[in-house]
Amino acid sequence: MSDGTLDLFADRAPAHSREPSSAADAGAGPSEGLRASGMPGPRVWTVRQVNRAVRLQLEQSLPQLWVGGEVTNFRRQRSGHCYFTLKDDTAQLRCVMFRREAARLPTDPREGMMVRVFGGLTLYEARGVYQLVVARLEAEGEGGMWKLAFDRLKRRLDAEGLTDAARKRGLPAFPGTVAVVTSPTGAALRDVIAVARRRAPWVRVLVRGTRVQGRGAGEEIAAAVSTLASRDVDVIVVARGGGTIEDLWGFNDEAVARAVASSPVPVVSGVGHETDVTICDLVADVRAATPSAAAEAALPDRRAVVRILDNLGTRLGKGLAGQARSRRWRLDQARDLLHRRGRRRVETCRGRLVRERSLVAGVMRARIARHRARLARDAAAMEALSPMSTLARGYAVPLDTRGRLLRKTADFPPAREFSLRVVDGGVACRVADEPGGGPTATSRRAERVGRAGRAHRAE
Amino acid sequence: MPSEGGLDRRLKRIEDIVASLDSDEVDLDEALALFEEGVGHLRRAQQILETAELKVEELIGAQGDEVREFEAPDQGDRDDGDRD
Lengths: 459, 84
Description:
The complex is a heterodimer of chains A (459) and B (84).
Chain A: H1 2-12, H2 23-37, H3 47-61, E1 65-76, E2 82-87, E3 92-97, H4 99-102, E4 114-124, E5 129-139, H5 144-160, E6 177-182, H6 187-199, E7 204-209, H7 217-229, E8 235-240, H8 254-262, E9 267-271, H9 279-283, E10 286-288, H10 291-298, H11 302-385, H12 387-392, E11 397-399, E12 417-422, E13 425-430, H13 441-452
Chain B: H1 7-23, H2 28-51, E1 55-60, E2 66-69
Antiparallel strand pairs in B: 1-2
């Protein structure tokens, strides 16, 4: 370190070996000046000569040293150079930290912070003030400047809500592609790959190699997260093995925090050992203690997947059975509905039937009555035509023994037996048998009956 | 990118099928077809579990737009911490 510091001063005072550095050499200047003015008198130095002489005295008489004190008025110029004053109860020392060294500071020190600085004394000739050119600045106490920087960034991110538990997303249960941001040559990647091979060999691991320590690591990690987030990956693992706080500093970079927070893909952070906490851990959706743990968090376990498959198989079967059951239920419902409707329909029909039957019965009764009346009329008419009614009026009809009508006198030979049908029965008769004598009175009467076609009365 | 027949896609599809069957909105023929499809995915998923080999690729190039198979270096730990 001291070599570098010497080089530094050589850069800033490149001419000192060529400039007069002894009192004798320095004396040459004033005498020339006097000659130039043409005035005799004491030896007079230029301001520049004095400052140069003092600067050289300062730089050569004191080696680089550590100085402890309280920081005040720390200012970081746009050029990157930092200026501040180191003080204690009774004294102050002006300090400068040039851009190259200041860039290594994780953050600016707080006002009043107790620090120790390492550097060399010099004199700023243009102003004639002496100052300590600081190569390193360290805070006293646990964690020092790193902790201060960490706390400051964390407070800011907390205030923005980037570390809120509510922002944390769940990880996909079955990632197809797991992206890994880490050193392509590191142990962390080997661990992640080993876990993936053991737990979920069906996944695709996509590595984006970055530096994971030193200057620029933070930017690379942030860029890798952003790049992967725009790819078709399901989860991003940011991993690094253990190291000192300075080694892990890239994961405390604000750019990393912002890239992780804005990633549309969930991020698992596994940086360092169990006890290391980085800003990346705090902003990530899942914080794992180690790279291996991060891989385990990101990847399902094969045995768990087997259980899930079994479970899905059971649910598939149940789902189908449920479909069948619901169909049966609906069928039952439909059947019940049909029955209810059918019954109602039957009731309706029966009612209509009853009504119609009575209607028909009425019509039929009327028709029967009509028919009956007609029948009565016809019966009366037929009655009038009936031989019985003629008989009833006193006529009689002669019938032979075989029931044939006897109409003419020739039908009545003597001694012919015949029957005379009268209204209430038959009368057995016999034609008188006087030979040649013609028919008897009885036969005459019978003849008269036959002649007239209508008899008054049978004997 | 996970392949069309990847385990994740198949599991998602089976879950969707189970959800459809549970929702009672499916025609019976369709339900049967879904069930058969689900069983097919289950079988294939089990095969994948048994036979899969890890594939590790590396995204390279300044824009990260090139993918190549990842070759593990012979010795690691060059700029990484110790193993955990």
